[in-house]
Amino acid sequence: MQLLKFSALCLLTLAEFGTAGRVPYWAQQHLKGEPVAAVKAHGPYTPKHKDKYDHKIDAEGDGLDPLPYRNGEGATVQGPWNRARSRQNPDLVRPPSTDHGTLSNMRWSFADSHIRIEEGGWTRQTTIRELPTSVEIAGVNMRLDQGVIRELHWHIQAEWAYVLEGKVRITALDTEGGNFVDDLEKGDLWYFPPGHPHSLQGLAPNGTEFLLIFDDGHFSEDSTFILTDWLAHTPKSVLSENFRISPEVFETIPKSEKYIFQGSLPGPIDKERTPLDDTKGIKKSKLQFTHRLMQQEPLNTTGGQVRIADSKTTFPLSKTIAAAHLLLQPGAMREMHWHPQADEWSFFIRGRARVTIFASEGNARTFDYGPGDVGIVPKNMGHFIENLSDDEEVEILEIFRSDEFLDFSLFQWMASTPKRMVAEHLFQGDEERQRRFLGELEKGVEEIGAHDPIRGVPKNGYGDDTTEEEL
Ligand SMILES: *[C@@H]1O[C@H](CO)[C@@H](O)[C@H](O)[C@H]1NC(C)=O
Ligand SMILES: *[C@@H]1O[C@H](CO)[C@@H](O)[C@H](O)[C@H]1NC(C)=O
Ligand SMILES: CC(=O)N[C@H]1CO[C@H](CO)[C@@H](O)[C@@H]1O
Fold first, then answer.
1. Whole-number Å distance between alpha carbons of 220 and 459
2. Pairing relationship of beta strands 373-377 and 69-70 according to DSSP bridges
C-alpha cells in the first residue's frame, strides 16, 4: 500500500516536473503540504522542507530560485533579489547546516572581470585585485582570432597556459639565445620562465582561446614589457645605433604599444622558422616549453579521470606551476582532501559544482561554481568538489604555485590508520556504527583501493537515502 502510494506520487511529480525520467528527491515535498507552484519555482527551498543531511541541489540545472529557508527556519525575500546570481550560488542563499563562521571570499567569475577589447581579440583577468584570496596566482582569459597576435613581450612572472579552444602558435627565446616555435591545440600547455620573451598568435580557422596562469596574484596583464612600447619610448638615435641603421627608418613605428592586433595568417611552421645557423647565433632552444596534457594517459578513478602535469613528472620546465586536469562524471565527487604546500587556484571549464572549504576552528563555508568561475582553496584547508548535475560532467583545472602536485586523501588516511584509533575518534561507544564504518572502509580498499581521487556513486547508492518518512 505504502509502496503503491509512493510510486503514484512519483508519477505525479514526474508529470509535474517534466524532468525526463528523473524525480529529484525533494520533488515529493509538495505532497507534504507545500503549494505545487512554490515547489515548482523553488524546489526544496520552501518553509516545510527538511534535509538533515544537507544534500546538494542543482538550482541552476533544475531552474530553481533558491530562498533562504532551512529545516523550518528562514523567511521569504522582500527586497531586491538578483535571481541569476542566487541560482548560481544556492549554497550561499541556503548554506548547509554544517557551514559556520567567517571565511574570506573564495569565488570569482570571469564574467565579473573587466574585458579589454582589442583588434581581433580580448582579454580579462582574475588577480588579487578582483579576488583578494588569489594571492599566489593570477589568471588571464584571452581570445585571439585567426592571425591575431599577442605582441612580442616578457614579464617578471613565469607564465603557464592551458589552451581552451582552437589553435595557437607560440614563439620563445631562452637565456642561451635558443629559439622555440610550436603549434598548440585544445588541451595543450605552455610554460615561459620569468623574463623569457615570447609571442602568441591565433591560427586558422577560428583562432584560439586560452587560460594564462602567472605565479603571483599581483600580476597584471596590462603591465608587461612589450616590444612596441619599449621602442616607442627609446630615442630614435639610440634605435639607430642599436640596429646600425639610419634613425629615419624608425619614423613610422607605433607610437605606443600594439598589445593585441590583427596580423597576417602564418604559413606552415617549418616555412616560418628562421634558418638555424649556430655560428651566427641563431639556434634551436634545448628547452621544451610545451606539453600535450590531454594526450597523457589518464588516471582512471571510479568517478572520472585525472591528468597531472608538474615539473617532477611530465612537464619538467614548469618549475613553478603544477596542475591537474579533472573530469568528474555526473554525480561523482572529487574526494575530501587537502594540499600541503600550495593554495589551489581552480578554474571551472564545464558543469556545476559544490565545494565546502574547512578552515579549522570550526569554520567552514560552501561555494558553488560554474563555467568560467575561479575558486581558491588556501593550502591545508580541507575540501571536496561535488558534481551538482545528474547529467553533465564537471571539467576543472586545479592549479598550484609549486613544482609538484601533492594532496592528502582523507579516505586513504582513514584506511591506513589503525582501525581502533579511527573507530574511537568517530564512534566511541557505538559498536554497531564502528562495525558498519570499518566494514565499508575495508570493502572500499578491497574493491577499489585506498586511492580513488574522484569517487563515483556506487551502483546501489549509499544505503542512507533520506526516506519519505524522514522528510
Ligand atoms: C568558425 O566560426 C564560425 C563562426 O562562428 C563557425 O560558423 C564555424 O563553424 C567555425 N569553424 C570551425 C572549424 O570551428
Ligand atoms: C582509462 O580509461 C580510458 C577511457 O575509458 C581508457 O581508454 C584507458 O585505457 C584507461 N586507462 C587505464 C590505465 O586503465
Ligand atoms: C546520475 C547520478 O549519478 N546522480 C547522482 C548524483 O548525486 C546524488 C548524490 O548526491 C546521487 O543520489 C545521484 O544518484
1. 48
2. unpaired
246 in the same domain as 138: yes
Answer yes or no: do 419 and 444 share one domain. yes
**Domain assignment of residue 241, yes or no:** yes
333-342 pLDDT tens trace: 999 999 999 9
Q: Residue 372: which region, alpha, beta or left (left: phi > 0; alpha: psi -120 to 50)?
A: left
| 36/59 Cα distance (integer angstroms) | 17
- Give CA separation, 157 vs 225, 297, 329, in Å: 11, 30, 35
Residue 237 phi/psi, 5-degree rounding, is -65, -35
Q: In this predicted model, what pLDDT tens digit does every residue of 239-256 receive, in sequence order?
A: 999 999 999 999 999 999
| Rg, C-alpha atoms of the chain | 27
Q: Which of 229, 260, 291 is the last residue of a domain?
A: 291
User: Domain check: are 319 and 242 in the same one?
Assistant: no
Rounded to an integer, what distance in angstroms lies between the CA atom of residue 43 and that of residue 63?
Answer: 9
Which residue has the least CA distance to atom 8 on ligand 1? 206
In this structure, what C-alpha cell is assigned to residue 458? 556506487
Whether 93 and 119 have beta carbons less than 8 Å apart is answered as no
Query: Are residue 287 and residue 312 in the same domain, yes or no?
Result: no
The DSSP secondary-structure symbol of 282 reads B
Residue 14, domain extent? 2-93
What pTM did the predictor assign?
0.92
398 catalytic residue (yes or no):
yes
**CB distance 58 to 390 below 8 Å:** yes
Q: How many whole angstroms separate alpha carbon 310 and alpha carbon 317?
A: 8
* 102, part of any domain: no
Q: Beta-carbon neighbour count of residue 185 at 10 Å?
A: 15
Q: Out of 130, 159, 344, 398, which one is annotated catalytic?
A: 398
pLDDT score of 463: 66
**Residues at CB less than 6 angstroms from ligand 3:** 55-56, 330-331, 390, 457
Last residue of one domain, picked from the residues 249, 270, 291: 291
Going from the Cα of 120 to the center of ligand 1, the distance in angstroms, rounded, reads 15
